[in-house]
Specification:
alpha+beta, 5-stranded antiparallel sheet
């Protein structure tokens, strides 16, 4: 028995998700085609709603001009018994002519009238394979017997003849003789045939009248079925012949099969995301071992290498089994299955579809080799688990490429094709889906291996004896529902910049979503797998042991890490799902407005400091730190509640260096007022800040498209000096990277290489015009960047063993929630020459914008953000060289400040008092204080909140807050 009559299941071809009501893989994001509709279905659905079983269908070939009607197919064979009389053709007689390769032809009769009909033997008794013999004339007495059988045990149709007119009978009347069934090998019952236990057999002449009546009724039903089948073939022959020659068959390599795009990490092993409407990876036949091909043929089409695309003998056997009441059997060859799944318009369960499918299969077989057809099939067929094609299936079931499968695994995978998913009446052939499925898979595996041995594709001694272990179904990274999913949005932007696709619907350009979904790209990104894991393990609340694991559920962290020498984004965490808010980068809100920034607080003083040094101001210059209320402000500018006059501190005589390390706000307000806010905007832009938002109303401004003088002070006033105006974590990390690289800017980017596969060679080739382009620019003077670094290195270093003794520059920052004493945004940013990293912590719940830790304490930059930054940096830099950072030079004008020099301190303290703290750079000289609301403006209720950072009453406060246990600088 061939694969179409496999007794292990009454069901037919593999179910394709999306067909027959099966929803298939869900469309969970823009890169999945909605509904994941399949490209084809089975022939017909069983009564239980299972996978289509495949009914045999006559496929007429053509009507010749000589009057001969050739039929590319076999008529259904009725049950044993007297064959029904059929109407003669117009010539008065019919003869079954010779046929080759399963094609039967009806020749023009030699003469009108009662010429004897030919006897057409069907089958080859010696080989057991059915074939249609040449017609020869016989006498009416001997004509009309058909036998089924063969010596090899395979059922074959024996001789059949259409008798001539009986004596005295009507001229031209033809009768179809009885058919008898010969047992395999010439004796013994055929278990599946009419003589076996399940078949009707031949009735005894001594049957009672009721039995004979029932048998007669059954014969009448069979006569009607056979007559209908013959009528369909004869009448449809001309139509099908015309269709065959007029159908414009699209070549397989022109069929636009959707191929999944794989986005990889920089090692080309870790997966960032897999995108597409179908999880499919193309492989050439040379990368598919012969035993994998033979296993599939043994499972689905054992005559694949012999038939001409359509197995007419298989159709005949399936039809016989179906007509005699056996289990439904299909007769789709591998070529037909490929045609059905690859071509549109072959999804309905109609005779027209089946005829067209057979035509396409025949033409494919004429134009392509068996290897080519097998390659197309193995890249098309569905294997379950969302895997289309053998390469995706091998990875889904065994975690390896198809070329690495062994014989046992190949047979198990081939067995899945028939029924990869459970139905209402069948458990399916995925052995991991329960005991029944495991038993069915084992039986199917043995059936496949048996077929491989029987066909000579596998030696009996080499047949595996142990069923291979399949891995449980798991997420294969398909889609962007993952912590790395947000990276895909930046990949799209870079593809658009290179002209591969369009985000705006430009004429002649495919959309970037469609390009990634169906283009079959292999994109290598800059993401480092070790650093990405470190970022997620440290910042993701869902990861046990992370810094946020046992903290309140409204808290959210974002981490971006960049290589200063290249601009490559090495780690990016902005959320757990690429379809949700990206807390590290850019989003588009419901109104189509760009959103995503967070107030950077005192971390923005980095750019103010750089702007001041660039304008010739020395870090040794002195500035007034006393709180005051500028003209037009509702509240005074303060220093986050810290009293700068206490214990002999700098008060009104603070150096710019000290003001940075202690993170005082007032001196930085004075600096911005002196050099003008536009200079701060310009320095931030040169470092890498591309976008900044105003707070009330919330509006994004592209710094690359607007001159700083046009934005400041009208949009961004002196408060920009200490970080009121939101920026993204990505931009901030890029700015740090520029300073870490001594002022040389490299644009932050995510893509290293874009490739597509050559379908002829199977090789991956670079897409022209794409790929990493390193264009470093010296945007900030080297001496300015190094002076900033020299100041900032004092901040992390004030904590013992920061970064395990490694020198690093850093800055903390905090921004209050409105006029409250609580915080809404907390940052820690910093760098070494090898790595620049920005960390933000805020709230993801607009209803709970305040950030409090599990002990109900305010979170400042020196708390959770600093913990995340330090832990991540130590992991990411493990094994890297420890490089010393520059020392302060004091270059510039030391008299540029507005500070008021105090009188000399007393040499001895008054009786009963301790000596004052005389080290202004010692972080432990700080005393925790209350919040400082800073400048406020009335709230604007019509402005939508910024994702992750909703403005509170009063529009946000100013400066940093001190945590109960200060760590870095201001906190």
């Amino acid at each position: 028995m061939n694969s179409y009559g496999d007794p292990s299941s009454p069901h037919g071809r593999a179910r394709i998700p999306g067909s027959d009501g099966d929803p298939g893989p869900g469309a969970d994001d823009a890169y999945r085609r909605p509904g994941a509709e399949s490209r084809g279905t089975g022939w017909s659905s069983g009564r239980d709603g299972a996978t289509p079983s495949g009914r045999a269908t006559p496929t007429p070939r053509a009507a010749g001009s000589s009057g001969r009607a050739s039929v590319s197919g076999s008529a259904s064979v009725p049950r044993p018994g007297m064959a029904p009389p059929i109407s003669p053709p117009p010539s008065g007689s019919a003869s079954v002519g010779r046929a080759g390769s399963g094609r039967a032809s009806v020749p023009v009769p030699p003469a009108a009238g009662g010429a004897p009909a030919g006897r057409a033997p069907v089958g080859n008794g010696s080989s057991g394979r059915a074939s249609v013999g040449s017609a020869r004339p016989v006498s009416p007495a001997s004509a009309g017997r058909a036998s089924v059988g063969g010596s090899s045990g395979r059922a074959s149709v024996g001789s059949a003849a259409v008798g001539g007119a009986a004596a005295g009978g009507m001229a031209g009347r033809a009768t179809v003789a009885r058919a008898s069934v010969s047992p395999p090998g010439g004796s013994g019952p055929d278990l599946d045939g009419p003589g076996g236990p399940t078949g009707p057999g031949r009735r005894s002449r001594s049957q009672d009248p009721d039995t004979r009546r029932r048998a007669k009724k059954r014969r009448r039903v069979n006569i009607l079925i056979a007559s209908f089948a013959v009528l369909i073939m004869l009448v449809g022959g001309g139509v099908v012949g015309f269709t065959y020659y007029s159908t414009n068959v699209v070549l397989p390599n022109e069929v636009p099969l959707p191929l999944a795009t794989t986005v990889l990490m920089k090692d080309k092993k870790g997966v960032v995301a897999k995108l597409g409407s179908e999880n499919r990876e193309f492989v050439t036949i040379k990368d598919i071992p012969p035993y994998v091909q033979h296993a599939v043929a043994a499972a689905e089409d054992r005559n694949f290498y012999e038939h001409s695309g359509v197995d007419y003998k298989g159709i005949a056997r399936a039809a016989w089994n179906n007509f005699t009441g056996g289990t439904k059997q299909g007769a789709s060859t591998i070529t037909q299955q490929y045609a059905r799944n690859a071509y549109d318009g072959l999804k309905d369960d109609s005779y027209a579809r089946k005829v067209k499918e057979a035509i396409l299969a025949s033409k494919l077989n004429e134009q392509y080799s068996k290897d080519q057809i097998m390659q197309h099939y193995l890249n098309t067929i569905y294997f379950g688990r969302g895997a289309y094609g053998v390469e995706a299936a091998a990875k889904a079931y065994f975690g390896k490429s198809a070329k690495d499968l062994d014989v046992a695994q190949a047979a198990a995978l081939a067995g899945v094709i028939k029924q990869p998913q459970a139905s209402g009446t069948h458990p399916g052939y995925d052995p991991t889906k329960g005991p029944e499925a495991a038993k069915a898979a084992q039986d199917r595996w043995n059936y496949v291996l048996g077929g491989m041995v029987e066909e000579g594709w596998l030696k009996p001694a080499e047949r595996p004896t142990e069923f291979p272990k399949m891995q449980a179904e798991k997420s294969n990274g398909f889609g962007v529902d993952s912590p790395t999913g947000n990276v895909v949005n930046y990949v799209r932007k870079e593809l658009e910049q290179w002209g591969v696709c369009s985000e705006s619907g430009a004429a002649g350009k495919v959309s970037c979503v469609d390009a990634l979904r169906n283009g079959g790209y292999r994109i290598t990104t800059t993401i480092d797998p070790k650093m990405q894991k470190a970022a997620e393990d440290t910042a993701r609340q869902a990861v046990k042991g992370s810094e946020l694991y046992d903290q309140p559920k409204n808290l959210m962290a974002a981490v971006v890490s960049i290589d200063p020498k290249t601009g490559r984004v090495l780690a990016y965490y902005g959320g757990d799902n690429g379809t949700h808010i990206d807390y590290a980068g850019f989003n588009t809100d419901v109104n189509g407005e760009l959103s995503g920034g967070h107030p950077p607080g005192s971390t923005f003083k980095i750019y103010t400091l750089a702007a001041a040094i660039n304008e010739g101001i020395s870090v040794n210059s002195h500035w007034d730190a006393k709180p005051f209320k500028p003209e037009g402000f509702a509240d005074e500018i303060g220093n986050a509640g810290r009293d700068v006059s206490a214990n002999g501190r700098c008060n009104r005589w603070c150096t710019l260096e000290e003001s940075t390390v202690q993170s005082y706000n007032v001196p930085f307000y004075h600096v911005a007022s002196k050099i003008k806010p536009a200079k701060v905007v310009e320095m931030a832009r040169q470092a890498g800040i591309t976008t900044m938002w105003t707070r009330e109303p919330v509006k994004a401004y592209n710094l690359l498209k607007s001159e700083p003088e046009k934005l400041s002070p009208s949009k961004f006033d002196e408060v920009i000096a200490y970080g009121q105006f939101p920026v993204t974590v990505l931009d901030h990390a890029n700015g740090l990277a520029t300073l870490a690289n001594d002022g040389s800017y490299n644009k932050a980017h995510f893509v290293l290489l874009v490739e597509q596969q050559n379908k002829e060679t199977g090789k991956w080739e670079k897409v022209p015009g794409t790929g990493e382009k390193l264009l470093g620019q010296q945007r900030i003077k080297r001496e300015v960047a190094r002076e900033v670094t020299a100041v900032l290195k004092k901040i992390p270093g004030s904590v013992d063993n920061a970064l395990d003794g490694r020198e690093a520059a850093g800055k903390t920052g905090t921004w209050q929630y409105g006029n409250t004493k609580n915080n809404a945004d907390a940052w820690m940013v910093g760098y070494t020459p090898q790595l620049a990293t920005a960390v933000w912590v805020g709230s993801k719940d607009p209803q709970k914008p305040k950030i409090l830790d599990k002990n109900k304490n305010d979170i400042g930059g020196g708390g959770l953000p600093a913990d995340i930054w330090e832990r991540y940096m130590e992991t990411a830099l493990k094994g890297a060289d420890k490089i010393d950072l520059p020392e302060i030079t004091g270059r510039g004008d030391v008299n540029a400040g507005n500070g008021v020099e105090p009188p000399p301190p007393p040499t001895t303290p008054p009786p009963g008092q301790n000596p004052p703290c005389v080290d202004p750079l010692n972080i432990r000289c700080q005393d925790p204080g209350g919040g400082n609301p800073g400048p406020t403006t009335p709230p604007n209720p019509t402005t939508p909140p910024n994702p992750g950072n909703p403005p509170g009453p009063g529009g946000g406060g100013g400066g940093d807050l001190v945590s109960p246990t200060p760590r870095y600088g201001d906190d």
